[in-house]
Amino acid sequence: LFCRGYYIRARAVDHCVQDFLLKTRSHPRTQILSLGAGFDSLYFRLKDVGLLHHAVVYEVDFPGVARQKAALIRRTEELSALVGDTGGEALGAVTLSGEDYKLLGVDLSELCELERALEAAGLDKGIPTLFIAEVVLTYMEHGRSDAVIQWAAQRFPRACFLLYEQMHPQDPFGRVMQRHFSRLSSALRSLAPYPDGEAQRTRFLEKGWTECSVVDMNEFFTRCVPEEERRRVQALEPFDEYEEWHLKCSHYFVLTASKGMEPPWTPLFPSVTAPRRDGPVGTAGSVTAAACATRPDAPGLRRYGHRSVLLKPNVVLTTGGFGEEDGQHCRVRDFHLLVKHGGGWKAAGVKKENPADGWAGRLYHTVSCLSGSLALVVGGRTSPSRAGLGMLWLKFPETWDASGAEDVSVELVSLSPATEPAALRWRHSTTEVTFKGERYLFVYGGRSAAEPVLGDWCFLHARELSCAAIPVEGPVPEGRHSHSACGWQGGVLVAGGLGAAEQPLGSIFFLRELEHGFRWQPVETSPPLTPRYSHTAHVHDGKLLLVGGVWLHAPSVPGVTVIDLASGVCLDYAVNGEHLGWPLMLHNHSSVLLPEEGELLLIGGGGNCFSFGTHLNPEPVVLSLSDILGSP
């Protein structure tokens, strides 16, 4: 994720800058003015590949930053050779000057001083000029940043502007993002008045720019980066942080604006002026999220990539994932129980009788409860390059105290062969089905160390754990991982997921039992389901519930989607978590439906973002579903 995050930023800037240089190559002179350039290497990249034949690059930052950068360039032979600096002393605001590179130390908020310094350094207001501001203006008070945007439009008759910044500050990921920058004493001051792409576009048009386009970084990657290049990037390294990648990209945008350019400068494609809106048109209502009544110091509840199952009434088993254990962030090796007792939930421990036997602290596995004392673990990974973890039986005592007063023992039994194809995957689903009166576990999709997306399946006989050859007909679904799968009418409902192009899917399929086998059958919804992945799902009273997940481009985040399986009517409900006091992450979580109470228990959720750190839901949450499902 670290590499991809910086790649997409540099790719967007290079894409737009090179387009400007290409479109203005008939002009004898052009110039680029980088505002708040810091230690950016754009000039050196352009110079090294010969793209600055007729352009001069001006960089501006605080005087102290500019002096440090000038010193670094002077003592680096390769850089000073590209600049061609004579090695003379700094003159006024100019800390370094070459034939096509000028480095100035000026406060951007002092526009009169900035203009005088630029003119003294040779800036020509009459020639085509590209302004660049990469995560710079957002740190200024919005009145001052507005003034910079308006100054550029008023003073330069032929100008282009490239802006890269954050957006969507109020959704859960946006709140984590803001908290991160506040902790660094770098508050995003312009974010509140301009929270999304449309607000930014309106801002530029009102400040004097005549053309303006905005896209978030998910859309930039999909539509502005060639498919061959996307495949190259996706194959560069083992990668499994899809949720944080898509969420980060949905919270950053690239904007291009122009005035006086013929033809108009539109490097992001002419037909798009604002981010796409692929989400639901509106919501049918909301459901309330309330903190679960557990001890605040209950261990093992902050995690993601784990699994939770209802082991027996009022007892929820949670295994695996990445989270907090013994005060550290790590793969969680302990098992945990939540026991409903006295109107609330309390945590209880699980003691492994043979802790070294095959568990390895796996993520993105599945757990299928076959009885109150027996569960089957299938697949999972420790790292994206190590996924051959096989299958395990989790054997609990036939009878045990479910009050949570004492730790419960569990025996881990590794199954052979560990190379069973059904187990060499993660981010898959395992769902119980019936065929001719026999119980099977339908293992479907996921990914492996060799394949980024799997579309195959296996019927595991529940008793023998051998793969059975059961005929399946009908249109085969597109391969996917991070989807949901629920048992229904003896078959399986598969919804959403992430496809081969790392794009969320909006399809739903029902694997329906027939007399001679099964048949894939598409499920149509009205309106069409918003594509998503990393959600959970449950079936209740003929309705499919999709909980949370990640989708792209939508102005909101996924809540609870209810699909009537008889009519296909699809309704979206927002999740109201304002009383929690912390941002509720509805991805990489687990959930357990409690139909008698009309509630949904959410455990864990969140992720590990290279930019903003590890963000985990601190405690389980209960969603009240009685209003949308009817009173229990």
Automatic annotation (TrEMBL):
The keyword Lipid biosynthesis does not apply. GO terms for molecular function: tRNA methyltransferase activity. Its EC number is 2.1.1.290, 2.3.1.231. SUPFAM superfamilies: Galactose oxidase, central domain, S-adenosyl-L-methionine-dependent methyltransferases. It is an enzyme of class 2 (transferase). The keyword tRNA processing applies. GO terms for biological process: tRNA methylation; wybutosine biosynthetic process. It catalyses: 7-[(3S)-3-amino-3-carboxypropyl]wyosine(37) in tRNA(Phe) + S-adenosyl-L-methionine = 7-[(3S)-(3-amino-3-methoxycarbonyl)propyl]wyosine(37) in tRNA(Phe) + S-adenosyl-L-homocysteine; 7-[(3S)-(3-amino-3-methoxycarbonyl)propyl]wyosine(37) in tRNA(Phe) + S-adenosyl-L-methionine + CO2 = wybutosine(37) in tRNA(Phe) + S-adenosyl-L-homocysteine + 2 H(+). It comes from the Eukaryota. Pathway: tRNA modification; wybutosine-tRNA(Phe) biosynthesis. Keywords: Methyltransferase, S-adenosyl-L-methionine, Transferase, tRNA processing. Belongs to the methyltransferase superfamily. LCMT family. PANTHER family: TRNA WYBUTOSINE-SYNTHESIZING PROTEIN 4. This is tRNA wybutosine-synthesizing protein 4.
